[in-house]
Give the backbone structure.
Amino acid sequence: MPYSYDDQNIFAKILRGEIPCKKVAESTHCLAFHDIAPQAPQHVLVIPKGAYVTYDDFAQNASDAEIADFTRMLAKVCAQLGVCPTEGEGGYRLISNAGPDANQEVPHLHVHILAGTNIGPLTAKRT
Ligand code: 5GP
């Protein structure tokens, strides 16, 4: 069953201001906020304001302006968190779960920024 956008998802409600979030940064096309259940000392979610379900949906269907803004927002938040290796800082991991095989919980595109400690192996081994 293909994913389609459901505007009742929790991040759509955050974008509409129906439920609160701990905002980190906002731009024309995106919002960044702290994950409610952090999996690392620093755990921020970056989402586009547009109705995109997954990264592939966004990359195929968003405008160049939305894609540029999203990419710059990831960099801005990493700089704000003080985790950019190019600045001699400790680093971070970006994760974007898409669909059932990745256990995507919220069907609105989001990139997790995980940082603040060694994040460990890339995935649990599934071979
Ligand atoms: P996914 O598994 O879809 O990649 O990740 C969804 C993330 O959204 C999870 O890390 C979860 O903790 C986070 N999350 C779920 N509900 C809320 C919420 O209401 N507020 C915030 N800030 N994060 C949420």
User: Anything to note?
Assistant: The chain is about 25% helix and 20% strand. Residues 79 and 87 are 9 Å apart (CA to CA).
